[in-house]
Automatic annotation (TrEMBL):
The chain crosses the membrane at residues 118-137, 192-222, 234-253, 310-326, 338-357, 410-429, 436-455, 484-502, 514-535. Residues 171-465 form the DUF6311 domain. Pfam families: DUF6311. Signal peptide: none annotated. The keyword Metal-binding does not apply. Coiled coil: none annotated. Residues 17-29 have a biased composition (Low complexity). The keyword Nuclease does not apply. Keywords: Membrane, Transmembrane, Transmembrane helix. It comes from the Bacteria. This is DUF6311 domain-containing protein. It comes from Catenulispora pinistramenti. Residues 1-65 are annotated as: Disordered.
Length: 690
């Protein structure tokens, strides 16, 4: 690779990073004419070298035209970069402002005058994200996502709880507002603490419903934008391939399904930045800076979506090991620099995450394990060839039985895309990076199948290691014990997107027009069935005026900060949770969708201890079944109910007018506590003398 003169050409670290995936470093490019720059200096980049080698036998005129086209495109990018960084790229820009604010101002002004391709394509991604979420984005107060309102209520509550903690200078990693009186280790449960902190002003001014809608739209657009940037900077040579790759990765089945109220898994916009940071660890001249930047990105990802960080590390590790095995000399040459930079990243992340992670794993209400059936949350091998119901060729009216829930359709990418990506990978199989990506994808697919691999719900007969899957041997290891197998398909989706971009890039630049047309047509045909559908919404259940008016404050006093709502919030119903959200979590609620330890001495996870107390069990039973089997209330039952209210630190039970089996609930609580009072749109039972 010919180094550019000082201040000329593409930064060396970008070319070297790109070489890992383009294999430019493994080839020797013939000398070809290059586009002169403004100062007369010629430029040679890794991407040009790849292009020259990828089309042997072409004429001198073809080579000259390719050099001119590539040089013009690269020069335009370098000019944009110069405007953004203030780097002296040419005599005309030698007096560019050096101050950060001046550079930012100059860049913004330049984008308005001459919008860059990156800006225009980013606006397209944003427009698509807004179109897909408009029903929620334009009506956040009145509607919720039809596909998963329960998790939306949970994350809206969390946005509110974090906003409450920040504005009251409390610890955002823990809250007593749910699962009273024990509270909730927010860092150990599914969390979006980072985005919640950033969105605190919006949540405080407009409510968590608005913040949630904005975050859902942002996750889609930002993920597409950062993936396009990563692909264009480090993987492909054409803007077309980068744009299409970003389009798929930002709006893939995995992104669409987890955008159904899983913002901790749809917030994938830091993943490409982390991958770029890993590639930059090979730069010998910037080891400290690159390591620190990567450490900061890793820290940020913990608070955006911790499980995504685990999947990123697993996928990246598999790729690097496979690539190093195929390029041992390159691996040896770069090992010391890479490991030294990785050391700085680990130290940086370790220092920044020391307290949060220790709180997560050893703090109050910390736990180990996962309370879900990992056999259910595993991918069926056949599901990879199926189309999800959130895309064009899926059935919007029903969920395919091969998918473990509407939010877990990451493995469903469709047979057409699998076929096209497989053909493109075979076309590029000579590249070590492509082979490494395929190896990583294969291992991740195997992991996604969980403890008992199946095809169309039937145990795989050809499985070489017996009926038990690889996950069986890993499920008790740290991190694996807290992850669901099917989510390994998220990382498979990333690899599919990268391979798609690499194949399309090769097709766009191929010297044979027929192959260019076939490649572009095949990719287009494979992606059309995956055109995403607009997210459907349903009307929200109105919050009772008893809470919005502040009348609920009669139910709280020193030592009694909990309000027991019927039905009690748990893994299914979230009614009580929405009341807490509406009032800025100013009062606590019992139970809720909380993971916690089995006991103070047993850290094994349980799901919220729902309906452990006697009163909770009977309220849940009467709510679901009516009062036919309700025991006759005597002094013993009255004492038991009073004891449970004391455990919850509550003096009131509240049920909204219109609650299922309200008459039976009222008959029971009238005798167990005191006659209920109808206060507007709720019935309130308050302990006498409180």
């Amino acid at each position: 690779m010919t180094e550019s003169p000082s201040g000329q050409g593409a930064p060396e670290h970008d070319s070297e990073a790109a070489a890992l995936l383009t294999d430019a470093s493994a080839t020797t490019a013939p000398s070809v004419p290059h586009q002169p720059r403004r100062d007369g200096a010629e430029r040679t980049t890794a991407t040009e070298a790849v292009e020259d080698v990828s089309a042997p036998g072409r004429t001198d005129d073809d080579e000259l035209q390719a050099g001119l086209d590539t040089g013009t495109e690269a020069e335009a990018e370098l000019e944009t970069e110069a405007e953004a960084t203030g780097t002296d790229r040419s005599p005309e820009t030698s007096d560019a402002p050096k101050h950060f604010l001046n550079r930012v101002t100059a860049r913004i002004a330049a984008e308005f005058l001459r919008p860059s391709p990156a800006l225009l394509l980013s606006l397209l991604y944003i427009a698509l994200a807004v179109f897909l979420t408009w029903k929620l984005l334009f009506h956040p107060i009145a509607s919720v996502l039809a596909g998963n309102p329960y998790d939306q209520f949970y994350f809206e509550w969390q946005l509110t709880a974090v906003e409450h903690a920040v504005t009251h200078l409390q610890n955002p990693l823990f809250t007593h507002a749910m699962n009273a009186p024990d509270g909730m280790n927010l860092a150990a449960n599914p969390q979006i603490i980072g985005p919640a902190i950033v969105l605190t002003p919006i949540t405080a001014l407009f409510g968590s419903a608005v913040s949630f809608a904005l975050l859902t739209t942002f996750n889609l657009a930002a993920t597409a934008i950062t993936w396009r940037w990563f692909l264009r900077r480090h993987v492909v040579r054409t803007e077309t391939a980068a744009f299409v790759g970003g389009l798929f990765l930002g709006f893939s089945p995995s992104m669409m399904s987890h955008s159904l109220a899983h913002p901790n898994l749809a917030g994938q916009w830091l993943v490409p930045l982390i991958l770029a940071g890993v590639l930059r660890l090979r730069e010998p001249e910037r080891q400290v800076r690159n390591g620190i930047v990567l450490g900061v990105l890793i820290t940020a990802q913990v608070f955006v979506g911790e499980e995504l960080l685990f999947l990123t590390a697993m996928g990246t590790g598999l790729f690097l090991v496979a690539y190093a095995a195929m390029r041992p000399r390159q691996a040896r040459d770069e090992a010391v620099t890479f490991l030294r930079g990785a050391g700085f990243a680990i130290v940086t992340a370790g220092v920044l995450l020391a307290y949060p992670l220790s709180f997560q794993f050893f703090g109050p209400m910390s736990f180990k394990g996962i309370p879900f059936d990992i056999g259910y949350y595993s991918a069926d091998l056949k599901s990879y060839a199926v189309y999800p119901n959130l895309e064009l060729w899926g059935d919007p009216a029903k969920l395919d039985p091969l998918a473990p829930g509407g939010t877990e359709q990451a493995a469903l990418v469709g047979w057409a895309l699998l076929l096209v990506v497989a053909l493109l990978a075979m076309w590029l199989i000579r590249k070590a990076a492509v082979r490494a990506l395929l190896i990583a994808a294969l291992i991740l697919v195997v992991l996604s199948l969980g403890p008992t691999p199946v095809y169309d719900h039937k145990t795989l007969g050809f499985w070489p290691i017996g009926p038990a899957g690889v996950w069986t041997h890993l499920e008790h290891l740290p991190l694996f014990s807290s992850s669901l197998p099917v989510r390994s398909a998220l990382a498979v989706s990333w690899i599919i997107g990268i391979l798609l971009a690499l194949g399309l890039d090769e097709a766009v630049l191929h010297r044979w027009q027929v192959l260019r047309g076939v490649g572009i047509g095949a990719v287009t045909a494979a992606l059309i069935p995956l055109i995403p559908r607009v997210f459907d919404t349903v009307p929200r259940t109105p919050i009772p005026q008893y809470f919005t008016s502040g009348a609920w404050k009669e139910c709280v006093s020193p030592g009694h900060h909990t309000i027991v709502g019927v039905p009690l919030s748990d893994g299914g119903d979230r009614t009580n949770e929405t009341w807490s959200t509406a009032e800025n979590t100013d009062f606590a609620i019992p139970q809720g969708p909380v993971m916690g330890p089995n006991s103070a001495t047993d850290k094994q996870v349980v799901w919220a201890k729902s309906n452990v107390l006697w009163t909770a069990q009977w309220l849940a039973y009467i709510y679901k079944n009516g009062g036919g089997s309700t025991p006759a209330v005597d002094s013993a039952i009255q004492n038991r109910v009073a004891l449970d209210l004391g455990t919850w630190q509550a003096k009131c039970v509240v049920a909204a007018d219109g609650t299922q089996n309200l008459a039976a609930i009222k008959n029971f609580l009238d005798q167990a506590i005191a006659p209920g009072k109808l206060e507007g749109d709720v019935v309130v039972w308050m302990e006498p003398g409180r």
